[in-house]
């Protein structure tokens, strides 16, 4: 139950005390205290006077914690209630007269008689930001007129508040004309302020946002020169990042500005960054990410940029190669530490260059000649170089989508790799690289037999182990999404059936289980129908207890997707019907995923009339479904009617069956 707005002095005092207690109780770790307080505050925030009362508590109460709580809640209430206008008998949560008082109060506390506590001042600024999302240009004139008079004597708080307001207003797309008018009036003073506050990041952000609507080419060019200078200054990385991000925004909104000297300077700064920064240094990564993003963007949108970058493309390609390095986690293979290997991801440090490589290939197809030379020299590379080279080759297909005359194929790659010889964990790493390469290149080939034979040869190697087998299964899962020869699914079953059961029986990680079940689903859907009963019998025997009753969402998704696919393909197969029936009976006993309930609907729509005895047993769970999802329950009920009509049962008896359930 919420608070009410008092009608007398006594009621007002009681109201304030109760409200203050609720604000403090929200901080309690005891949910029995915290939750009712949260609910009562939430229920009261739509009442006129509530928001104003929060600011009164902040202003009058000496308790610092209470002041902070009141401002934090006030900011949220502004976002939720400020814009709402009461209609059809509903009240307006924040009436106009209260809005005027609140805006005047915020203006006073932030810009005139400034709040001395930094955290409280920060919350007041955030309240101004929230209000400015709804009231600014015509509705908050004193705030609007404050800055033109302060540009010659800006304080750091002024700059920070102006940054907040500019950021908020530039996002109000319906107010773009007013934003441009406001900024145009401020811009000359802001340019002058840049000289006085040369290294102020907030002022730099303001200028960059101004330039999205005021296309001052001279200023943009000077900022690019600044960016180059910042590169040589210790600690200048953040300034460079802000500049590059802001300039990219300007390029997106006004691409016509980026030509001639500006375009050359923009490309030069980004390419210098990519050339000089070290991907292995964590503090360089954020700059590398922005520079790569800028180059990728401009390659796709500016033909002049493509011509300018062409001479730099070989060095950028080399940087893509150099960015990838062998990780020491592969050494874990020596000690058979498989569990950690299952969760291995490709290194994050190189991922930005991974995204750049396809753009370079699409823009400069002649770079493929470098890859063709590499193929000829694979047998001369040492292990770390070969490891990184195979990984880079696995990225190529993304860049080949628009190239029709590529001389590099999966067949050529696999034949070139087949003669390579390594021992121990190095061979395992190379095998895993080959599996990744096959997975990425499948979309470019029609020769799936050579891909599968290579996968089988890795399994038959003396160095094959459980992690390589799992990696092989992931690659085969991808392979099964293509039109493979008819005999391949049977060969897969023969080669990997036992491995699949061992992995699934011993594994507890939901993501790995999802991959394994998805693999099995793809395999069953590609196998001849006569093999389906045998496969399902194996599957249900080994995983029924382990997975059928699981409530882990990702596992439930995998099972329901597999059974749904089987229902659509093998609707007349009794083993499929029995498997789905068992799964539904186990899952529907308790509150279950919506996916299971939709599988129930598909099940009833699919089965033959003579099999209704299976779905009859599911009716006991209908009541729970009806409470959770009435529209789905009605659809399921309609299917039951259809089945019972076909059996000459009286459909009117269904209501009685459901009532009994």
TrEMBL record:
<protein>
    <recommendedName>
        <fullName>Importin N-terminal domain-containing protein</fullName>
    </recommendedName>
</protein>
<keyword id="KW-0813">Transport</keyword>
<dbReference type="GO" id="GO:0005635">
    <property type="term" value="C:nuclear envelope"/>
</dbReference>
<dbReference type="InterPro" id="IPR001494">
    <property type="entry name" value="Importin-beta_N"/>
</dbReference>
<dbReference type="GO" id="GO:0006606">
    <property type="term" value="P:protein import into nucleus"/>
</dbReference>
<dbReference type="GO" id="GO:0005829">
    <property type="term" value="C:cytosol"/>
</dbReference>
<dbReference type="GO" id="GO:0031267">
    <property type="term" value="F:small GTPase binding"/>
</dbReference>
<feature type="domain" description="Importin N-terminal">
    <location>
        <begin position="37"/>
        <end position="112"/>
    </location>
</feature>
<keyword id="KW-0539">Nucleus</keyword>
<dbReference type="Pfam" id="PF03810">
    <property type="entry name" value="IBN_N"/>
</dbReference>
<dbReference type="InterPro" id="IPR016024">
    <property type="entry name" value="ARM-type_fold"/>
</dbReference>
<dbReference type="InterPro" id="IPR011989">
    <property type="entry name" value="ARM-like"/>
</dbReference>
């Amino acid at each position: 139950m919420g608070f009410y707005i008092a009608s007398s002095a006594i009621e007002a005092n009681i109201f304030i005390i109760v409200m203050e207690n609720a604000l403090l109780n929200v901080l309690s770790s005891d949910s029995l205290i915290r939750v009712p307080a949260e609910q009562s505050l939430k229920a009261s925030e739509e009442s006129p006077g509530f928001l104003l009362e929060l600011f009164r508590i902040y202003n009058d109460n000496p308790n610092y914690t209470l002041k902070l709580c009141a401002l934090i809640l006030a900011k949220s209430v502004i976002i939720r209630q400020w814009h709402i206008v009461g209609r059809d008998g509903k009240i307006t949560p924040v009436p106009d007269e209260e809005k005027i008082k609140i805006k005047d109060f915020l203006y006073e506390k932030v810009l005139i008689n400034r709040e001395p506590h930094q955290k409280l001042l920060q919350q007041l600024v955030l309240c101004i930001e929230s209000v400015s999302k709804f009231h600014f240009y015509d509705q908050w004139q004193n705030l609007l007129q404050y800055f033109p008079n302060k540009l010659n004597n800006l304080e750091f708080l002024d700059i920070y508040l102006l940054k907040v307001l500019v950021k908020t207003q530039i996002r109000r797309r319906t107010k773009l004309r007013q934003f441009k008018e406001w900024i145009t009036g401020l811009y000359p003073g802001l340019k002058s302020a840049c000289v006085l506050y040369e290294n102020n990041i907030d002022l730099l952000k303001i200028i960059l946002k101004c330039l999205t609507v005021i296309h001052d080419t001279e200023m943009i060019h000077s900022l690019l020169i600044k960016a180059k200078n910042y590169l040589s200054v210790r600690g200048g990385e953040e300034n460079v990042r802000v500049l590059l991000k802001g300039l990219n925004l300007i390029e997106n909104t006004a691409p016509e500005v980026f030509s001639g000297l500006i375009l050359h300077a923009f490309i030069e700064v980004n390419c210098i960054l990519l050339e000089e920064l070290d991907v292995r240094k964590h503090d360089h990564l954020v700059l590398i990410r922005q520079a790569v993003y800028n180059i990728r963007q401009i390659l796709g949108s500016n033909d002049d940029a493509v011509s300018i970058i062409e001479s730099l493309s070989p060095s950028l390609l080399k940087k893509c190669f150099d960015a990838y390095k062998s990780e020491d986690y592969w050494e874990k293979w020596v000690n058979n530490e498989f569990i950690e290997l299952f969760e291995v991801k490709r290194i994050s440090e190189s991922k930005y260059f991974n995204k750049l490589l396809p753009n370079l290939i699409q823009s400069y197809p002649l770079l493929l000649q470098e890859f063709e030379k590499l193929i000829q020299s694979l047998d001369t590379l040492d292990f770390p170089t070969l490891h990184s080279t195979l990984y880079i080759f696995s990225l190529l297909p993304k860049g080949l989508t628009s190239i029709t005359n590529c001389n590099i194929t999966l067949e050529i790659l696999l034949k070139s790799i087949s003669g390579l010889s390594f021992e121990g964990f190095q061979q395992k790493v190379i095998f895993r690289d080959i599996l990744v390469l096959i997975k990425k290149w499948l979309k470019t080939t029609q020769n799936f037999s050579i891909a599968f034979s290579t996968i089988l040869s890795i399994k038959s190697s003396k160095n094959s182990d459980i992690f390589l087998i799992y990696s092989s299964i992931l690659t085969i899962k991808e392979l099964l999404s293509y039109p493979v020869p008819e005999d391949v699914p049977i060969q897969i079953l023969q080669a990997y059936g036992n491995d699949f059961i061992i992995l699934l029986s011993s594994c507890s990680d939901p993501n790995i289980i999802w991959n394994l079940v998805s693999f099995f689903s793809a395999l069953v859907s590609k196998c001849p129908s006569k093999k389906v009963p045998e496969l399902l019998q194996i599957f249900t025997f080994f995983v029924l207890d382990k997975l059928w009753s699981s409530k882990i969402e990702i596992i439930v998704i995998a099972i329901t997707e597999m059974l749904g696919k089987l229902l659509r393909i093998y609707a007349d197969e009794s083993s499929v019907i029995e498997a789905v029936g068992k799964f539904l009976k186990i899952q529907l006993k308790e509150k279950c995923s919506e996916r299971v309930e939709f599988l129930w609907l598909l099940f009833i729509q699919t089965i033959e009339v003579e099999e209704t005895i299976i779905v009859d047993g599911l009716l006991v769970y209908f009541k729970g479904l009806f409470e959770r999802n009435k529209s789905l329950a009605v659809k399921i009920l309609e299917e039951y009617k259809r089945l019972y009509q076909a059996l000459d049962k009286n459909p009117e008896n269904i209501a009685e069956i459901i009532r009994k359930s």
